[in-house]
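Hi all, posting the design record for the shared folder.

TITLE: backbone redesign
STEP: 1 of 1
STRUCTURE INPUT:
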């Protein structure tokens, strides 16, 4: 952080609370800086070159920061961005603490007051004969064991049961179409007046999920407003648009580092369906949330809503007519002046 971590933690709350606009400015700068890293994930040649530069910078930073004995097991065998990146200023420096030991020996057994690690290793590949990573069996004392082996991210809203039109289950409907999905990560056809926040394909590898969630909240509110104001009874995304949107997302993802970076990650399932990541920039996602494509939706307006629509259309036509008449009069006045 600016001015060092200690000074930032001490002074940032007061400064950001009392300097008008500074908080938003800082957040915008962080967003813009993060958007630069969107280049990491594409499948074009320039994306690969950008990744290579970033990988070199990251490896040099790691080698400068951690003890040499960890260099090999902290050097990935896949492209940067293929797995979720860690943004933590304390992780690498923490490995210099003599009380901390990092190992890739597998946990093979648990005793009353100890655990057994090895033989073998989980990384690098045990078949790699030139590796110096240890493979010997060790027993070490243990007071507490923390199991942190991940979670299932491929089933959205599971096991919550959501029933739509004709008794259809939301998760089942998604799976029948290939995997978890939602139009603009927010809506599924056949589930009217229902919106998901942080739904399928809303996560990014470079930007903030908080920003994406805020965008989805604002997007959903545009449709909820129609219902809460009494202008509409039902809003439901069109099936063909949901399917088209999902097909585009999956096709774009197939060319990204998530699917071709040489790693197995929680971003996608065993059959290659990626229901996690959004393949475009957050600029684009924000824009699409700000300006919905209303023709992609089936909206059942109330009598009040229809009258309002007709009134707005009439006002637009009047404004257009006034503009044309005004322009004509200005042109006529110019012609008279030239003639005189």
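Okay, here is what came back for every position:
SEQUENCE:
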């Amino acid at each position: 952080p600016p001015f060092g971590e200690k000074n930032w933690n001490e002074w940032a709350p007061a400064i950001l609370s009392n300097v008008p606009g500074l908080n938003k400015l800082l957040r915008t700068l962080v967003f813009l800086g993060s958007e630069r890293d969107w280049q990491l994930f594409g499948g074009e040649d320039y994306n690969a070159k950008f990744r290579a530069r970033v990988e070199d910078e990251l490896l040099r930073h790691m080698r400068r920061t951690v003890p040499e004995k960890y260099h090999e097991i902290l050097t990935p065998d896949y492209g940067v961005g293929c797995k979720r990146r860690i943004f933590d200023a304390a992780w690498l420096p923490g490995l210099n603490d003599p009380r901390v030991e990092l190992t890739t020996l597998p946990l093979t057994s648990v005793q009353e007051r100890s655990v057994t690690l090895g033989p073998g290793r989980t990384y690098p590949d045990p078949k790699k004969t030139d590796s110096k990573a240890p493979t010997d069996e060790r027993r070490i004392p243990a007071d507490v064991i923390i199991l942190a082996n991940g979670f299932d991210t491929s089933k959205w809203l599971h096991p919550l049961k959501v029933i739509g039109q004709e008794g259809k289950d939301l998760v089942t409907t998604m799976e029948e179409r290939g995997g978890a999905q939602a139009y603009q990560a927010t809506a599924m056809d056949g589930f009217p007046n229902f919106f998901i926040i942080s739904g399928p394909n809303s996560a990014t590898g470079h930007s903030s999920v908080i920003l994406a969630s805020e965008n989805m909240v604002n997007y959903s509110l545009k449709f909820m407003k129609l219902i809460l104001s009494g202008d509409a009874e039902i809003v439901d995304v069109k099936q063909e648009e949901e399917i088209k949107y999902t097909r585009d997302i999956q096709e774009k993802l197939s060319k990204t580092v998530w699917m071709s970076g040489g790693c197995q990650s929680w971003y996608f399932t065993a059959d290659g369906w990626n229901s996690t990541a959004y393949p475009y920039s957050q600029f684009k996602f924000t824009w699409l949330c700000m300006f919905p494509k209303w023709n992609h939706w089936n909206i059942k307006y109330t009598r009040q809503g229809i009258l309002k629509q007709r009134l707005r259309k009439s006002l637009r036509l009047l404004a257009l007519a006034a503009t044309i008449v005004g322009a004509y009069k200005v042109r006529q006045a110019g012609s008279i002046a030239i003639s005189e």
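COMMENT: DSSP finds ten helices and five strands in the chain.
Let me know if anyone wants the other runs.
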